[in-house]
Structure formats: C-alpha cells, structure tokens
Amino acid sequence: MESLLSIMIYVVVALSIMIFSVLAVTTRKILRSATFLLFALFGTAAVYFMLGYQFLGGVQIAVYAGGIVVLFVFSILLTSHPGDNSSKLESKKKALGLIGAIAMFVVCAWSLISRCSLIKTLPDLGEAELPTMSQIGNDLLSSGSNGYLLPFEAISVLLLACIIGGIVVARKK
To answer: Is residue 159 over pLDDT 90?
Structure first.
C-alpha cells in the first residue's frame, strides 16, 4: 500500500514538472515563464527528497530555485518591461525549433538506452561504502588535486560580475 502511494506521488510530481517545464518555454509573458521555471525546480527538489537525497534537495531549492530564479527575475526587471508580451514566432522559426527538439529527444533517448545497456554489463561490486556528507563537503571544497574549490570560486566571481553588469545596465537608464 505504501509503495502504491509513493508511486502515485511520484507520478503527480513528474507530471507537474513536465507541465511547468512546457509552460515555462511556451508562455509569452517572461515573468510567468520564470515563475513556471521556479515550480519545475521545486518539483525536481521534491523528486530528490523522495529518493532520500535531502542534501541535494536542499541545494536544489537554495541554489536553483532560490538563487538562479531570483537572478533571472532581477535581470528581467532590469532589462525589459515585464508586462510586455514577446513577439509571436514565425512559422520558419517554429519548424527549426521543432526539428531541434526532435533531434535533442533522439540524442537523449539514445544516450539513456545506451547507458542502460552499459549498466547491465557492469560487474557487481557488492556493497560499496558510501561517502558521508562530511567527506563530500571536504572533497568539494578542498584545494587538492581532486578538489573543486577553484571552480566554486570561479562561479562566484562570474555571478558577482553578472550582478555588477546588471547594476551598470540599470544605472544607464
């Protein structure tokens, strides 16, 4: 009974992610698009929580749903009129977009199918020891050979440059 309930919740969350993702790219109002993106990111965090990855779900909410969407809305409000509608696409652009979407679907389907067949051929490693959150944090923020401190700092400098660029654009008006 409990597994049926979790499957039903997963289906509802997955459908909401798909619906909000489609709405995010098809709406003509840019602030609505950012709001639909926010809901899709919250749905993704819900999937992480359902899988038992509480840390990853929290990061999804804090970084993507919190930070990136606020940055999008901030840049939208600084560079355009949020109440304006975007222009309708011409039929030539719709055809190119449809061809691109189909091509990306084929690439994603091929990579998923080839990955699943690769997993079947991997040897059984038995019970592998899973790293703790402390080990993951130390590895991510270490400056050693396998550390990710430099890319982490590079991204923070890039975000700072974006904020400064937004302020410069806003001051010119």
So the answer is: no
